[in-house]
Design a protein that fits this description.
single chain, alpha/beta
């Protein structure tokens, strides 16, 4: 083993041991192995450390996936990218790199029901989890009700701190929130708490001009919109509903099979 190889191995061993919070092992192992005449075993020792790092990564990803509450079927691989316009596909590909969460950038997805906006943001969430990021998926109405309960129990600050642990908080179907002063107040508090610090994902079938149906008054609406769009990527899902397409395809298939049945009967009789 050359001096260069030893130096590279020593640096990597030290790096991994620091990650494992074992600085003494990182500082002493190479010198001790070499002094004992076992320098050739350092490469094997490094292989073991690399395996430990990989196992820890998988365990962390599994923990993050379980705590994310992301729908297991709405992944990047199952998303129908081909149905989306090129510009939207490019936006999603860029977001999938994950750097937006480092800057507290929000991701806002708008479109009619069935256009794929929830699947797209869940797919981004899965990609973030695979990269070791913390994600939480929550239907907007349910999270707001949880925050209301916490407020009534004088526990809202603690609940907001718990949510602050997630790099990406995905609120699904914001347009279906019940309108009321208390609901809009806790929702605005959540948005304000994460502003410019933590990323927020929102799916909604309501465009901004209709957000007064979510918040209690025009001023609250304007303030909420101002905060979520200040640092945001806006995704517009202007595509047909995949549910409508699927139903249409099933109808066409059924019609084709019905038309083919008489022809098969004639052929059988002949």
């Amino acid at each position: 083993m050359t001096d260069t190889d030893t130096s590279v191995i020593q640096e990597r061993i030290g790096q991994l041991c620091r990650e494992f919070k074992m600085p003494t092992m990182g500082a002493q192992s190479v010198a001790r192995f070499t002094k004992a005449g076992h320098g050739d075993a350092l490469s094997t020792f490094l292989e073991v450390l690399e395996q430990e790092a990989e196992d820890r990564r998988h365990r962390r990803i599994n923990r993050l996936r379980q705590s994310s509450r992301l729908p297991s079927g709405k992944t990047w691989e199952t998303f129908e990218h081909h149905r989306m316009p090129l510009a939207l596909r490019q936006q999603l590909d860029h977001l999938a790199q994950g750097s937006f969460v480092d800057h507290g950038v929000n991701v806002l997805a708008f479109g009619l029901p069935g256009t794929g906006k929830t699947h797209a943001l869940c797919a981004l969430g899965h990609r973030l989890v695979e990269a070791g990021r913390s994600v939480l998926f929550a239907p907007a109405y349910r999270l707001v009700q949880d925050l209301l309960a916490a407020k009534r129990d004088f526990d809202l600050p603690r609940q907001l701190r718990k949510l602050d642990n997630f790099d990406f908080l995905l609120l699904d179907d914001l347009g279906y929130l019940p309108q009321g002063n208390e609901e809009s107040e806790v929702l605005f508090t959540l948005i304000a708490e994460r502003y410019e610090r933590r990323s927020l994902g929102i799916t909604s079938n309501l465009v901004f001009s209709e957000w007064e149906r979510i918040f209690a008054n025009p001023m609250a609406t304007a303030a909420a919109i101002d905060r979520v769009v200040h640092h945001a990527v806006i995704l517009e899902f202007d595509v047909p509903s995949y549910r409508t397409d699927a139903a249409q395809q099933r109808g066409e298939t059924a019609a084709a099979e019905a038309n083919a049945a008489p022809a098969k009967e004639v052929n059988r009789q002949n």
